[in-house]
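Q: How would the structure tokens look for this protein?
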Amino acid sequence: MDVLMDGIGLGESPRWHEGRLWFSDWVAHQVIALDPHGNRQVMATVDAFPFSIDWLPDGPMLITAGQELLRMEADGSLIRHHDLSDLSEYGWNEIVIDGRGNTYINNVGFDLMGGEEPKPGVIAVVTPDGEARQVADGLAFPNGMAVTPDNSTLIIAESYEGKLTAFDIAEDGDLANRRVWADLGEGGDGICIDAEGAVWSPKFQACVRVREGGEVLEEIELDQFCFACMLGGDEGRTLFMNVADWNGPEGIFKEPRTGKVLAVEAPAPHAGHP
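A: Here is the predicted structure in token form.
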């Protein structure tokens, strides 16, 4: 296992894009692009916590930032893509964009950093024509999401129930047929899909590869919490993991910054979205 980068506050939302691993450092408020040799570049500064990234099929990167969805322009500037404030009073969390351009975003439904009691979260969609609407609710801390290669199924980690939940995606972007895709028992955060239909998911101080139904195919034990994972590299067979120490929400702002990007070879290449 290689350490590609350290000194990160809290790395989340990793994406393999144009030969580099992009991710959000929530503490530094930076979008970072990291090449396979560990060379890094700050691509954007985002005044939000949390914030997550993904790309539209025609290229622009979108970023969840508070109650807005931002878009990166060709010159690197960030502009408002969509105002989401009418859908929730809380900031938006994770994002995934399917192959048809539907942008799915989720919201945990309460102020985690403010110490509020947990409440159910939601998923919303912003369609290619600019319509934004809620498409699912009643989620126990909705977190990382992925869409299957055929754009038929959205899978989401419900962190407070330790499970992966699946929805069918309708032609208009609505979600239906909610079901348990896999019961992890605990954890679940930023996920990705491989070409054999398995999902890689964080599970506290581990990252597991699981098939639909819950069978664990691989487990990587770690000495830090895993917050998100992504398949990438030249052949899509490198598993990148964002890890860090975890001592509660307040602890992530303390020095030293313990976050790292780890890389290890995976048995099957990337598939689907992100």
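The mean pLDDT is 95.

DSSP finds no helices and 25 strands in the chain.

Upvote if useful.
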